Amino acid sequence: MSETMLKRSSAPRSLKGASWLKRPETERVFAALADADVETRAVGGAVRNTLLGRPVTEIDLATTALPQRVMELARKAGLKAVPTGIDHGTVTVVCDGVPFEVTTLRHDVETFGRHATVVFTKDWQEDARRRDFTLNALYAERDGTVFDPLGGYEDVVEGRVRFIGDAETRIKEDYLRILRFFRFNAYYGKGPFDAEGLRASVKLRDGMERLSAERVAGEVRRLLVAPQAVHAVEAMFDYGLLTGVIGCVPRLNRFSRLVAIEEAVGREPNAMLRLAALAVFVAEDAERVAERLHLSNAEQALLALGARDHIESGLPEEGAAKQLLYKLGPAAYAGAVRLAWADSEASPNDGSWRDAITLEERWQAPVFPVKGSDLSEHIKGPALGALLRTLEAEWVAEGFAASRDELLDRAAKLSRGSSKQVR
User: Model pTM?
Assistant: First the structure.
């Protein structure tokens, strides 16, 4: 077994201080998989992010134990074991509600996206060579000792996203790796994209048409909220890949303005709002993009905010902002204001727009004080609903100032007038 421990003087030989290694759940899973002829290591994102000082949200493990053995060892230790991808060597081990994906070392004999034919192995380098990028082929022992079979550490610290081996070969194994190439650059890249990876991605871009909508959507969601999303999205457009993904000519300026606004006001990015800024011109666009990417109804509703006529909304004037907040509710209002701001020519530091975006923190929309039961003695049927809508529209337009008694008096006059017209 040939493997390379990190040798550069600047490279940590151990992640011993990593908090995720000290968690009781992690220690229990490692302990469960500890056996005389079994080696188990953390792999990929947990190792990479720790080396970069970034948060670790999930822990994947690689092991020399065969999948059935993994399940036996886990259950013997009182842990739940779920055969989530057992044909490809993956078992999800759950400890106190925390899932760990445990995958047997393997090499891919034939690959068709998610439908690879695999052979299990005990060779760590062979397992590393079947992965996508060098920065994902880093391993860490239970005690934190780091192993770098393919020299990925240098790429991690230099911000290079490089395919392992021949880029075209890696992409043909799974065309989703084109989108992953741009996503990983958006998260970890520094400087220009790797030339070989970029050439291969452009050359083979038509292969993305074979991918399922769900897989494409998953990558799009992650890419759009990445720290360098603007750089990656613009690169995808420049090299002819973006239009094929979203199905339309993108609004790059609107997208970059939204990102700048979110960063300036310290708001967490929302993938659907960013997609709305990028791809939605009119209401039909929201439906089309949602269908193309198989998005949920809730996600389509956020996309639809990109088609609202913000120019006529009166934003960022406070009266107009209050009316919009009342109409949309806090969640949709927050998105609508971000998109309206991105549509405007205002600076990300504009005070009026900042007031509008924080309105929900300072003002709670009142409840319309009149109900149908208040009027049902005098008017019924469709006319009742119409009267309520008229009263509410006037109440909102007048700044929510009219009291319940004033509205009831107004309703009585309107209903009498309506009765006279009927006679």
Answer: 0.88
